[in-house]
Amino acid sequence: MHLARLVWSPRLLEYDFGPGHPMSPTRLDLTMRLIEALGLLDQPTLELANAELASDAVIETVHDADYVAAVRHAGSTLEPDVARGLGTDDDPLFAGMHEAAARQLGGSVDLADALWTGEITHGVNVAGGMHHAMPGAASGFCVYNDAAAAIRRLLDRGAERVAYLDLDAHHGDGVEAIFWDDPRVLTVSIHEDGRTLFPGTGASADVGRGAAEGSVVNIPVPARTTGAAWLRAIDAVVPAVVREHRPQVIVSQHGCDAHGRDPLSNLNVSVDAQWTAQRWVHALAHEHAEGRWLALGGGGYAVSDVVPLAWAALVAEAAHVPLERGSELPAEWRAAVEAMGLEAARTLGSGEVPFRSWRDGYDPADAVDRAVQATRRAAFPHWGLDPLLD
Ligand SMILES: [Zn+2]
Ligand SMILES: [Zn+2]
Predict the structure, then answer these.
(1) Whether the predicted model's global pTM rises above the 0.85 cut
(2) Is residue 19 pLDDT above 90, yes or no?
(3) Which value, to the nearest 10 degrees, does the dihedral of the CA atoms of residues 220, 222, 227, 231 take?
């Protein structure tokens, strides 16, 4: 039986860096309201579970114990610890920081457990995807790396191969760093080129090290890349390496800040294109991993017209509920958005995004194609794949 689980707790809204910070809890609030207004919570294929606090021992499977102690201390005294990224412009301190971040992480780790035991087929944590957090430091609005902790839990339970697919506009540097030396974990990140966007890493030449060489795949795309080109890039790389890696579980990060209206990136990837990518990741999980799919949120700062749409579509996808592209969004949801003084989207996307498959040919005059080809040249030989022909 196919079952998707969404983890949620209103207490996840307490992950709040304060007024004016891009990562406003409103984005999660409006996402959950849209999921509810679309009737997804009434579907028999979707269950809702509480996001529970992770213990220190669980957090310490990917973070240094002294960092966890420092987060707890900073979140109670509000004394900055800049060397650990706590109390910076990106990661200002707030009361209860440890607990809020531990709940994000607990949600993802519990889903990993339920996937591995077969209790559920798909898991979604829209509050997760904190891919920049490093073992000993907060970074890029991320305090605890729930994505890495979920992967670690799968490995600890006996998984031999896990694939991590990161669709956020920013490079998934924390997850990559944590599994840099681990051949069991394939990390693939498509992101805006580090020369124009935080965190500056994620070059195509970075492929992992030693026995793990090839297990890191980076697709840095240029600023202004469109949805069609972004899909073409994903299609040219992801299915091939996933097929070779043969993951038992797919963990994906669906940061939706690659959107053209997102204030923090320079990419131009529509909700429709992001939706198509979600569908592809879902299909890969069924094709290669007996369906085991853990889908996480991530970045996304267009709080009323992009994030709720992208992640409601993600939850519907995981629950196998077909939503019609271009359909009117529920009036009560739009009214709630407008009551907050925000602008609400009118429709859920507008239609399929036509894209050209890589098989139709490589265009060396195109900047995205050149970036994709650089990735294929760097990564494919490690998998026995031909950068030109596969
Ligand atoms: Zn991001
Ligand atoms: Zn499915």
Answers:
(1) yes
(2) yes
(3) -30
The pLDDT value given to residue 2 = 80
Task: Quote the CA–CA distance of 97 and 79 in Å, as a whole number.
Answer: 12
For residue 314, how far is its CA from the centre of ligand 2 (angstroms)?
A: 11
Q: Which ligand has the nearest atom to the CA of 263?
A: 1
Centre of ligand 1 from the C-alpha of residue 168, in Å: 5
As residues whose CB is below 5 A from the ion ligand 1, the structure lists: 168-170, 255, 257, 299
- Considering every ligand atom, which ligand is closest to the CA of 141? 1
Average pLDDT over residues 210-223: 97
Query: Which segments of the chain does DSSP mark as H helices, in order?
Result: 26-37, 56-59, 65-77, 97-117, 146-156, 173-178, 227-245, 271-288, 307-318, 331-339, 367-379
Calculate how far, in angstroms, residue 359's C-alpha sits from the geometric centre of ligand 2. 27
DSSP type of residue 259: S
Look up residue 139 and give its DSSP letter: B
Percent of the chain at pLDDT > 90 equals 98
Q: What's the CA gap between 100 and 123, in Å, rounded?
A: 20
b/e map 3-35, b = 16+ CB within 10 Å:
bbbbbbbebbbbbbbeeebbbbbbbbbbbbbbb
Catalogue the active-site residues.
132
Sequence-distant (6+) residues with CB within 8 A of 130 are 101, 104, 105, 141, 142, 143, 144, 145, 146, 147, 174, 298
Is it the case that residue 1 has pLDDT exceeding 70?
no
**Ligand 2 mean position to 285 CA, how many Å?**
8
